[in-house]
Each structure stands twice: as C-alpha cells, then as structure tokens.
Amino acid sequence: AFARWMGCAPSVFRARAQLQRALPLLAKGHALVDVAQRTGFADQSHLSRIARAHSGLTPARLRALLRA
Predict the structure, then answer these.
(1) For residue 42, what is the DSSP state?
(2) In contact, 49 and 41? CB cutoff 8 Å
(3) Rounded CA gap, 35 and 9, in Å?
(4) What is the rounded distance in angstroms from the CA atom of residue 2 to the CA atom of residue 7?
C-alpha cells in the first residue's frame, strides 16, 4: 500500500528523506561523519552509498556543488 501511495518502497522513501536532511548540512560544510550521524545513516560509508545511488555523486562532490 505504501509503494502504491508514495510511488516507491519504504526503504527508498527513507533513504531519500535522510539524504534531503543531509543536504543543508553538507552545504554548511559539516564533516561527512557528522552529517551521517546527525541524519540517521549508519556511518559515513552508508551516507556515501545512498548519495551515489540517488544522485550519482559522492557526498564530498555534493558539498562542493552546494557550496559553490
């Protein structure tokens, strides 16, 4: 029912929501490990995997683009 209503699986929805919360912190220049901890990722590598899967970019590259 969730997938029909939201258009994606709950796990995908959660990952996207976490990444959305991470973007402003990345833009402010917070350390990647701090961003991962503050937004509910298991660790920095989890943040990196999700960022790359959903945007095609690493968190460091996202941060550079957001700060430019």
Answers:
(1) S
(2) no
(3) 24
(4) 8
**Side chain identity at residue 44, one-letter code:** Q
Nearest to 62 by CA among 51, 49, 47, 54: 51
- pLDDT, one tens digit per residue, over 12-58 is 999 999 999 999 999 999 999 999 999 999 999 999 999 999 999 99
Q: Are 62 and 23 in contact (CB under 8 A)?
A: yes
25/43 Cα distance (integer angstroms) = 15
**Lookup result for tokens 């973007």:** 23
Residue with tokens 């991962």: 36
